Amino acid sequence: MANHLDSFFAAVSDPTRRAVIERLTQGPAPVSELHAPHDIALPTFLKHLKVLEASGLVRSEKKGRVRTVHIEAAPLAEAESWLNRQRRIWEARLDRLGALAEEIERNTTDDQ
Amino acid sequence: MANHLDSFFAAVSDPTRRAVIERLTQGPAPVSELHAPHDIALPTFLKHLKVLEASGLVRSEKKGRVRTVHIEAAPLAEAESWLNRQRRIWEARLDRLGALAEEIERNTTDDQ
DNA sequence: ATATTACCTAGCCATATGGCTAACCATCTT
DNA sequence: AAGATGGTTAGCCATATGGCTAGGTAATAT
């Protein structure tokens, strides 16, 4: 039952990891470059990368001594789709409520 | 710097809490009804509700002894927007890459 | 007046998370 | 061959998270 969404949303709930994602939308980058702007120790940063990779949001290959990381679009789209679905259901319900309110309004007016 | 997105994504990274959200898109509900389908103790469930409420995804009012919970749309839209933005940037980059590839293709063909 | 219902608080427990340092490869550079 | 660079592993620590039980309180139903 453990959903993709679990690990995706968890991955993206951390500001450091979101920053990495934002950087990676601009194109792939080696670990050291991704690490540079963040004021935390490298091993700590590597943990974040592992979380991202485990969630499927990111992949990486090592060539020589440098590991290059790139973003993976599918999980992003999946999460977006879930949010979109929820919002649409919610809005549809609001519409029905609106229609109901109008109807009540009409009836009430008729009755008077 | 602590972003709204932090607590939102964290809130939504748990399957129990996502289920609650899904239920609430259908309309408001009292705590006991929200709790019913989940096989966990009430106090545990209440913690989940607190997380949701702290993230701004949900609000509730108590009347008599029953507390009614309803969903709040704004944070949902905000998160969706972040995801959407990332995906669009990423896709735009792919398009540029595609154009570049085409151009290279053209030049290579011309040169031969 | 009592019992039931609906929720809340407190407190315990195990595991997960995000941070660190220290030490260790492995690959380039010089 | 030595040194510097880029990444990795191991292990420690504090706090957060998700679960539980036990024991409230306040409102309604009998």
Task: Describe the 3D structure.
Two copies of one chain form a homodimer. With 112 residues, chain A is an alpha+beta fold. Chain A has a domain at 4-72: Orthogonal Bundle (Arc Repressor Mutant, subunit A), CATH 1.10.10.10. Chain A contains five helices and three strands; from the N terminus they run ααβααββα. The first copy, chain A, has a three-stranded antiparallel beta sheet with strand order 1-3-2. Chain A is elongated, with a radius of gyration of 22 Å. The N and C termini of chain A lie far apart (55 Å). The mean pLDDT of chain A is 89. The A-B interface holds A 1-3, 5-10, 12-15, 18, 21-22, 25-27, 71, 73, 76-77, 79-80, 82-84, 86-87, 89-91, 93 and B 1-3, 5-10, 12-15, 18, 21-22, 25-27, 71, 73, 76-77, 79-80, 82-84, 86-87, 89-91, 93.
Task: Give the SSE map.
The structure is a homodimer of 112-residue chains.
Chain A: H1 4-12, H2 15-24, E1 29-30, H3 31-35, H4 42-54, E2 58-63, E3 66-71, H5 73-111
Antiparallel strand pairs in A: 1-3, 2-3
Helix pairs in contact in A: 1-4, 1-5
Chain A binds a DNA duplex (30 and 30 nucleotides) through helix 4.
